[in-house]
């Protein structure tokens, strides 16, 4: 029969704690195979600190596998954890653990959080493709944003506020042929709740990448590719530093909304994961940098197929990421890159 409160109170403290611990263990059994995974993780961490490298689309993963940059660790080339494969090896002599996150915010955040919590990583490098919202950005160019924002959190309102300091999207402005009121009302963009180590929760809209890593990225000299297997761009792409990026859980293929984001927020690239990657690393203070290759115009694309351009954009973003990782390896006396204050 279960013990009464009086009987439990008469037990020695040590025995009581043992009973409680036994009950907790029985209620929360270990996941099958986790002992073996823990041993693999310990072995990987003894290999030394690594740079965490993440990408979102299969095409971006394929670009890395085909490039020959990544050299798997022969002792243990990968670990399967929580449904994802974490590849262990090196790029240009620098320890790297890379993983395909999957698309959109939750997948990106879960993968990065796993890297930060489970493995000994000194920072996160994120590369991939993006849509362009800035006419000065050309196909194949690589953006290294200084700030990113999550633009998919809204308060949906019935009417536009007369005096509203924050940015609103008023649907009535897009009525055709003339603007006016619209039953859809308006969207007010919301801040994110950022929880950071040693700080109270704060509401933020813009999330900065690591300032020290961004400075290193500014000094990179990378020759980007102009051609892939099917065609060549009219001019050689370039690396552009210091712009802004926007993320949301949607694939943007709407010219008017693209123009609105550029006009109101001055964002130059649009994707689905960058803000989640930066926010996840900002909380514990882990350095992070983002490289996004332009594969399409986010709404309206008169010339090339985005499917064909994704390959070239992935290759170029990867080239910049690889050069950055190599530079980190040369400049730091140890692989552990120290984060600076943003």
TrEMBL record:
GO molecular function: catalytic activity
InterPro entries the UniProt entry points to: Nucleoside_phosphorylase_d (IPR000845), Nucleoside_phosphorylase_sf (IPR035994)
Pfam families: PNP_UDP_1
Domain Nucleoside phosphorylase, chain residue ranges per copy: 79-326
The keyword Signal appears for this protein: yes
Gene Ontology terms describing biological process: nucleoside metabolic process
Entry-linked CDD domains: MTAN
UniProtKB keywords: Signal
Range of residues in the leader sequence: 1-26
Key word Glycoprotein present: no
Name of the protein: Nucleoside phosphorylase domain-containing protein
Record organism: Triticum aestivum (Wheat)
């Amino acid at each position: 029969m279960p013990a009464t409160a009086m009987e439990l109170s008469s037990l020695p403290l040590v025995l009581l704690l043992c009973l409680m611990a036994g009950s907790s263990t029985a209620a929360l059994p270990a996941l099958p195979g986790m002992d073996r995974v823990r041993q693999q993780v310990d072995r990987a961490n003894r290999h030394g600190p690594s740079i965490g490298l993440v990408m979102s689309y299969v095409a971006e993963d394929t670009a890395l596998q085909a490039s020959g940059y990544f050299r798997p660790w022969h002792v243990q080339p990968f670990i399967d954890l929580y449904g994802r494969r974490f590849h262990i090896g090196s790029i240009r002599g620098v320890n790297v653990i890379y993983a395909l996150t999957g698309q959109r915010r939750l997948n990106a955040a879960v993968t990065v959080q796993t890297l930060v919590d489970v493995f000994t990583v000194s920072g996160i490098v994120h590369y991939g493709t993006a849509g362009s919202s800035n006419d000065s950005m050309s196909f194949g160019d690589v953006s290294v944003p200084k700030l990113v924002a999550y633009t998919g959190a809204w308060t949906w309102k019935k009417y536009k506020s007369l005096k509203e300091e924050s940015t609103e999207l008023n649907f009535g402005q897009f009525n055709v042929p003339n603007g006016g009121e619209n039953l859809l009302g308006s969207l007010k963009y919301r801040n994110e709740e950022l929880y950071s180590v040693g700080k109270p929760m704060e509401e933020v809209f813009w999330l900065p990448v690591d300032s020290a890593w961004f400075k290193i990225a500014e000094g990179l000299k990378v020759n980007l590719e102009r051609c892939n297997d099917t065609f060549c761009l009219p001019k050689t792409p370039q690396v552009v530093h210091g712009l802004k990026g926007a993320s949301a859980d949607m694939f943007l293929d709407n010219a008017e909304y693209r123009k609105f984001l550029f006009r109101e927020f001055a964002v130059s690239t649009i994707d689905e994961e960058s803000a989640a990657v930066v926010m996840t690393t900002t909380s514990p203070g882990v350095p992070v940098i983002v490289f996004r290759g332009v594969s399409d115009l986010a709404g309206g694309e008169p010339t090339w197929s985005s499917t064909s351009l994704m390959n070239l954009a992935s290759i170029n973003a990867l080239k910049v990421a690889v050069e950055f990782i190599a530079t980190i390896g040369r400049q730091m006396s140890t692989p552990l890159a120290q984060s600076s204050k943003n």
